Amino acid sequence: MSYIKKIRIRKFCGLVELQKGVILITTFSLLNKLSGFFGMFTIFYGGDAISIISFFYSIIAAVAFAYFLYFGVLREDPRILGFYSLFYWLDLIVNILFTFAFEVMWYLVMDHAPLRPKERDNDDTISPQGTSSLPAWKVESTIANLILASVTVVHIYFGFVVHAYARFIEKHHHSTSRTSGFTFLKQEVDNNPLITSRYTSVEDDIESQI
């Protein structure tokens, strides 16, 4: 994670403040997980194990994103934002694994036989047995992989934005804590006559020695 800390992002897409950008990212992720609720039909209509696991994970992830949005992003809690940054990367990895599993399943159920060219019967009628020797699944697979790769790159950028915002809030929180602690200590010294008198006597001793 050390190389991630070296990446500095000051604005979301170079235009929007980090907090607003993280709010948009979290809201988008929450809506994406809520769409997974439609996977409940796989339970009633005999879905496979991966679809059922994906459905329950979407429920858990949706609750987690809602929690991090309200208690972490909106309230600017550095501790919760730190957990949110880790959770976002974990969710990204889980999504990649689910996508890979679904793509393998899709590949296995597709018909990979190439389409045969049209043939003529004895009575010179054309039998529609195919129009191309190139399997249609190759074109679909290429387009789907390009889209998934683009979406994954965008999600990786979102992960860096969330991490940058968590680091910013953590540094701001530590800086504010040190400043408030110093101010409180100064007020205690000023309001305590015993400490003030000792401080004054020390100053007098130093001046007398000079």
Automatic annotation (TrEMBL):
GO MF, one annotated term: inositol phosphoceramide synthase regulator activity
Parts of the chain that traverse the membrane: 21-46, 52-74, 86-109, 143-166
Keyword field contains tRNA processing: no
Pfam families (alphabetical): Kei1 (PF08552)
InterPro entries: Kei1
Example GO BP: inositol phosphoceramide metabolic process
Keywords: Membrane, Transmembrane, Transmembrane helix
Domain of life the protein comes from: Eukaryota
Gene Ontology, cellular component aspect: Golgi membrane; inositol phosphoceramide synthase complex
Protein name in UniProt: 15028_t:CDS:1
Protein species of origin: Acaulospora morrowiae
